[in-house]
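Memo to structure team: turn this sequence into structure tokens by end of day. - J.P.
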Amino acid sequence: VQVDFATEGARLLLSEPPLELSQIKGAFRFDTATGLSAPDIRAQALGHALRGRAIAAGARGKARTRIEASGRVPLQVLTSWLGVTPSLPPSGELPYALGLDLDGADSQLRVSSDLKGLAVNLPAPFAKAAGDSRQAVWRMTLQGNERRYWLDYAGQASLAFAARPGQALQGRGELRLGGAAASLPSAQGLRVAGRLSELDWSAWQAVGKQYGGAPGATGNLQFLRGAELQIERFNGFGTQVDNLAAKLARSSHGWQLDLTSALLEGRVDLPDATGAPIAVDLARLSFPPAEPPS
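Reply from structure team:
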């Protein structure tokens, strides 16, 4: 069965994902065997204009619709729609190309962007000015008891994550840095691994205080299960270390950081308690040779 219709100023409510489209203008065809199609759609979504098309992609009598659209939207509006409530390092306006597959249990959302107009308030090498362009792709499933999420950021970071709706801190995932693809772990919590060209410990401590939650709240930080990184240049604790291997793991009272490089080898205990001393236990410390007197 095929039905052709045209709209102007129409309104559509999607239940999954929950999205309202208004001021819809286009010529549509719905085929019960293949899905919905429209060559040119104009509409308002999340309070902003978008333009796109609908493609009937079903086969063998099973209807399937793919919606492709592009536009610009403030990041705060987008994260509110996605249900992301904590404050995030990025801010500004996001240009996007959206692909929405409406296919029952296999429905997915894919959003790609060059991020021009979006600033990323993170230390190097992830910092980004609003005027710079970097390619990013976000994907997520839309059905099931556990939703899956994937993020690829400019060849620098890859995220694979899964959680029940509304229970992100009970989810499981991996953040892989340095270009390799992340894989989804079986255990709860977030793990970080990979390579970094540089890491400034004080700068990242400031990020943790700003985005890790209210003072004294450790739930978000304890969601991080550990990290294993190879760092080309590390700045922290009053020194610079090249080619540093760092492994971060939870201990009974905080975090345990194991460090290995040509300059040093040892352990740093970072307590959860505010004001508690940081314990440093070095098995080896080599000082660079002194410069000859001029």
